[in-house]
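ARCHIVE CARD
SHELF: 3
SLOT: left
DATA:
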Amino acid sequence: MKIIRSKSFTAERAWGALDIASMDGITTRLRWMDQSAVPLACE
């Protein structure tokens, strides 16, 4: 089993991801961004 520390994870590029689990065809990914995510304003 591989232990993944999400706080210290960085990818090679923005929006890079690491597959961390796969069950019944569903994959969970840990994504990394180079800046904070800003929610879109709803009108």
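SLOT: right
DATA:
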Amino acid sequence: ASAGIVDMAKPTQALDPAADENPNASVAVRTGDQQQLILRQKGEGDQPMTAEGDACFSDERLNIASWSIAASETSTAEGTGADATQHGASAPAAPEPAAEQHSASTDAADHESIGGPLEKELAISMQFAPAMASLIGEFDRPDPAAIKRAVRFQLFLGFGAEARGLLRAMPIEDADIPIWQSIARITDEEADPAPVFSGMEACNTAAALWAVLADPRVLGVGQVQKAAILRAFSALPTHLRWHFGPTLVDRFLAMEDFGTATVLRDAVTRSGESEAGPEVQMMQAAIDKASGSPGASVARLETVAAESGPSNADAMAALVLERAELGQEVSFDQVQAIEEYAKERAGSLEQEKFNRALTVAYAASGDFDKAFGNLANGPDAASTLWKLHANAGPDSALLNYAVLQDGVEPPRSARGSAGLVANRLLRLGLANQAERWLAVTNDPPALLSARISVARGEPEQALMLLGDLMTPAAIQVRLDAYKQLGDESAIAQMFADLGMDQERWNAIGRTEDWAKLAAEGPEVWKTAAGTLSAQPAIDPADGGELAKGKALIDESVTTRNAITALLGSVKSPAALSK
């Protein structure tokens, strides 16, 4: 139960101690969490199973590299073909180049020549005739061995539709036909109505590779035998590595498994990139992006997009998305190209993909009205659109699309950029709108929250949000809050704690505590504050009105000189703001 087993089937036959083999199949196991469990009867061979209790397909049954036609087989095939022409019956089919001849190794280094039949053995053009020879046997019936050879050869070439067509035209009975049918559909990137690799992603055989190719969702659920996948992929012929490699790399990069994606890339390119198609270049661009080299990625995509061919549309879509993520502008010509590609793919499975690229292209080119207008056709672009809008959109677009009606919350897709939108709205003087955007962020920045509170006339809330934060920006917000409260004493104490003596005494001056300034302040403040302290009354009897007037003039001169010195020592408002 701790292993997740919810059901098991008992052996159905009694064991014969004298027998060499165990007649019972592996114990059928059904688990609740789809983990792979390898349970066997005592004495049973090493036959791994899926979580549903199905046996994993062996490497020998999936050794596609051995399905080519060896040079040694051509003479036999030609001879039997001539004999069949003369006698109207098929001769024995060419020997199968499968595991009956040699066991397939599981080490990638042992398969260095497996991908080589196209170059190192018999030329591919010379393999067609012997592969397709003698398909019709005696009594005009399909020869099972010859059909098997021909179907497997077509799968070796990557001709999925042709292999399935041959099986329909010349049906035979073979236990591997479901495997061939699934491989053919996987090769042609078609949905498989009868998948045979389900649950085999955890098998320690080549079946794991085909299970992942058949259904990318298995990478995110349960156990996956990456070592078996890499081993089987490395054993594929070069042209099939070029065909399947970009798809596999994209799927592992989507799972943020950069290590496995890199190993797959190395297996794809070990025969050289110069002969590889644009799909391999786009795969390299994806690896460059994931490895932190966006410049190299953009350069590769620009090269593929500039070339003619079926891949330039995909490259252009990827290029637009990547330039937008980097904050780079998308040119008018690129926008026009994406518009045409989106029109061409209207109603197809790729329609939403290109509409997403078109929405992002509009935004990256600065046309946010068209971008928001096209968003309904490619809703997956919403988060990228709001990111571009928050970072580089003009204020007019921000006012059009970010100012919310009463009772309306910000879109869920925009919440990753809500803080940026709130900050821009605050700078535009829309504190209430900024507060509504900030409320939907997962972790609202304390400083921005405090700034919004000050702008809304809530100084106590701002001070509470700031806490002990004392960055230069936080000090300014704290100062604004104290000013709203009219608490000059708190301002003076804050400056004292910061060691800003001049600002401290300026704040005390605003409290009009002249006695404190005269007693403890700096000299310029002492002199000025002393003139404002209580002066002894002048007795007119000592000198009459003239003496009183002279005393007032002397006091005025002293006060003026003190104030002039004080003003000369105080920073200007512009300097204080810095």
